[in-house]
Amino acid sequence: MPNLQVTDCSSLFAPRLPHRPPLTTLPHSRFIAKAASLQQQQQQPHLHSASPPSIVNRRHLISQAASLSLSLTTLSTLPLPAKSEEVLSEWERVVLPIDPGVVLLDIAFVPDDLNHGFLLGTRQTILETKDGGNTWVPRSIPSAEDEDFNYRFNSISFKGKEGWIVGKPAILLYTSDAGESWERIPLSAQLPGDMVYIKATGEKSAEMVTDQGAIYVTSNRGYNWRAAVQETVSATLNRTVSSGISGASYYTGTFNTVNRSPDGRYVAVSSRGNFYLTWEPGQPFWQPHNRAIARRIQNMGWRADGGLWLLVRGGGLFLSKGTGITEDFEEVPVQSRGFGILDVGYRSEDEAWAAGGSGVLLRTTNGGKSWIRDKAADNIAANLYSVKFINDKKGFVLAVIIHTRCSTILAILYSWFTLLSWW
């Protein structure tokens, strides 16, 4: 068994989706939408939601963005509209071979072959593509099917041809041939918490995070792990409650979300969203921070310039002043229509995308100073909860369809021409 030093740390979850009442089941639709070209669009009126924050109102699931070239609401029941000159985007939709109820959790591509990628989810879901994400097929890994467990695959990461997958119950898979074969690495039963995030960092090296906040690093293919944090999160909070960290006494021992920067720093949101914590390589414990915002935090992450973004429940978006770790944030106006924003993904220092409930999709081209609503997902009755860019030309938005409660992907493939012609 690997040598694991017990400690405590964090988890990379897809941000929690807004609560919603059960809806009548409609025909099942799973697809990938690929933006092949982007052109100008005539401005047309659209509905604004009067729903309470983070609540999906069924009356507003159907958009009035009539200038879209394709309706993305269903795959098999609606005919495709004729193309016109005033087209926002042309979308290609591909069925995902997954069962209703599966939630997609992570996506990654092999750096040496960006046509080859993997998509993970609940109910032991692993899909594979070898054409850049246009088509996906189920992938079976025998070493993950030899027990009576229904694994939840939480995270995947590649560095060169080496790749890692972690899941719950505790499972660790490793590949050295770009995913053609996967080896199961045994883990100690004393591992604190469930593994929810892994990052390939170099040859035979990776960094792993558990849902109790433990951070481990390995340099020998996962056979030995060294604890990077010397103090549990709970112990840190017990020591700092008297220092004025609001809400620390209500901490339940897990994070709501955690995000890693390219240089190895972490920012995590407490389970109740009433404060956040940060960690930098070399620090012996997590550093808690008070939120300077009245509403509770939904999610936090890193900007491309090294600063922080912060989402609050109800649809607010804040950016830190300057770069690095700080408690000083300022709000940026966004057109979220009252629905919660769940994630932000940066394509470059200037361009980023924000996604949220009821198909909310926002774009900035000035580093986040201003945001414009993109209508590409208006006709999708879905909550968009994760934005991931594979490189500066390819990005994916993970979503869960509201009517059928199944997952889908919104994939955007860029070219330099489309970037220039968007606005």
UniProtKB/TrEMBL annotation:
Pfam families: PSII_BNR. Keywords: Photosynthesis, Photosystem II. Residues 86-398 form the Photosynthesis system II assembly factor Ycf48/Hcf136-like domain. The keyword RNA-binding does not apply. InterPro entries: PSII_CF48-like_dom, WD40/YVTN_repeat-like_dom_sf. This is Photosynthesis system II assembly factor Ycf48/Hcf136-like domain-containing protein. It comes from Hibiscus sabdariffa (roselle).
